[in-house]
Amino acid sequence: MLKIQNYINGELIAPLEGNYIDNYNPSKGEVYSQIPNSQTNDVELAVKAGQEAFPAWSKMPKNERSKIMVRLADLIDENLEELARAEAMDNGKPLSLAMRVDIPRASANIRFFATAILHNASQSHHMEEGFTNYTLNHPLGVVGCISPWNLPLYLFTWKIAPAMASGNCVVAKPSEVTPMTAYLFSKLCIEAGVPKGVMNIVHGLGAHAGDAIVSHPKVKAISFTGGTATGKIIGRKAAETFKKTSLELGGKNPNIIFADCDFEAMLNTTLHSSFANQGQICLCGSRIFIEKPIYEKFKTAFIEKLKTHKVGDPFDKSSKMGAMVSKEHLEKVLGYVQLAKEEGGKILFGGNKLTIEGSENGYYMEPTVIEGLDFNCRTNQEEIFGPVVTLTPFETDEEVLEYANSTQYGLAATVWTENLTRAQRISQELESGIVWVNCWLVRDLRTPFGGVKSSGLGREGGFRALEFFTEPKNVCIKY
Ligand code: NAD
């Protein structure tokens, strides 16, 4: 059985205490590899390697640093299929999705930040005669990047790319549930000639390896994407050593549909925004609010479409949805379906675990549509993070805004209307870091990405991400 290794100081090495954890293929429900159960001493080694590599990497001319990173992006493109297969195997997502979205986005992340540093000018502020001010942006040193399982290489690279590009050395921990593409990525770092110690990957559990990164006094910043509960723990821990933190957390996103929308476009995109990646994207629209005049029409058309939305083996080209990431997560999501019933919800479609022929032990579930719930019941307030959506009719703009803004979350919202004035007013009033009007998950890497309320702290994307990984220093000179 394949044993994944840590990547520390340019080498693939075993965890110091020699302990491993089983890694599952969720589409078969079988263990297929093992990952290091790294501890504080492994993190210590990685931080030390980062500190030693930092002076040379941070002083390397930007275009050389950029070239190494572009080579890394090229290697991801060259290994697209192998990486996509690993992602599908590890996460359960359809191979077609990994080929089309996850892996191309991983190389785009690296290419974007590798080239952004070439355009990043420092500021100068001229004062009265004889004085001038300028601002330097220093890399921080060793930084920690901790990422989740839902978009493994996509979100891993979204963090490590700006960190490396701005001259930092990285200690990264991918999710213990989906370690495989980060492991393959370490091999690509060696091939691309990333200097040893610049990028370090420590595999293991959040409570051990993750906590050791967050607690380490020499780690200067933590960029974290994951659940809100974990974000709270990390925020508190990081404050003890005054680390900078960027926290990208959970969501319970509203999808607001007005009667005047382009119905066909809305229907197709809503299917996607509800169930892509088995609903395991922090940006999925899990609460669908429909204006009353088209409620019944929407319900009928949506369910009709779902009948052909195939759940199946991730490697089967016709599968629109694959397996849930783990047995525990599947059980959690099914638990929410049960809760919805107890709260008075009516299951319009799905709601059950699925058995797929040839993959009987896999963690599959039907896409699920529920109606008849109050907007402030638990099913409509808590993040489910699965293929479960609720339908709620509304009559006025004020009413739907109250529903949409009622949760503790504020990550992303979608609005469907052909009325530009209404689109603008609703967008303005939504408590959300991102609003998509007549589209969903259209991303420009230059734009700010992140949430408000319990969905996070800070923004990633574009020059903001480079700023996060640097410390400005103002220099004032009298001539
Ligand atoms: P999680 O919080 O359980 O784990 C995320 C990462 O944190 C993993 O690598 C884990 O090992 C690590 N971790 C756990 N406990 C830790 C600790 N005490 N100290 C340090 N590290 C620790 O999240 P998950 O289940 O992997 O991912 C799903 C969650 O991520 C959902 O809530 C989803 O909304 C959120 N998410 C948010 C965004 C966003 O951009 N806002 C994107 C994707 C996913």
How would you characterize the overall build of this protein?
With 479 residues, the protein is α/β, with parallel strands linked by helices. It folds into two domains: 2-249 and 455-478, Aldehyde Dehydrogenase, Chain A, domain 1, CATH 3.40.605; 254-445, Aldehyde Dehydrogenase, Chain A, domain 2 (3-Layer(aba) Sandwich). It contains 15 helices and 25 strands. The chain has helices at 40-59, 62-78, 80-91, 95-116, 152-165, 180-192, 206-215, 228-240, 263-275, 295-306, 327-342, 378-381, 397-404, 420-429, 462-468, and strands spanning 2-3, 6-8, 11-13, 20-25, 30-36, 124-126, 131-139, 142-146, 169-173, 199-201, 219-225, 244-248, 253-257, 285-291, 346-349, 353-356, 359-365, 368-371, 388-394, 409-410, 412-416, 434-437, 452-453, 456-457, 470-478. Strands 15-18-19-14-13-21-22 form a seven-stranded mixed β-sheet, sandwiched between helices. A six-stranded mixed β-sheet has the order 10-9-8-11-12-24, sandwiched between helices. β18, α12 (378-381) and β19 form a beta-alpha-beta unit. α1 packs across α7 (206-215) and α4 runs parallel beside α5. The longest helix is centred in the first third of the chain and has 22 residues, at 95-116. Nicotinamide-adenine-dinucleotide binds at residues 146-150, 155, 173, 175-176, 206-207, 210-211, 214, 225-227, 230, 233-234, 248-251, 282, 383, 385, 411, 451, 456.
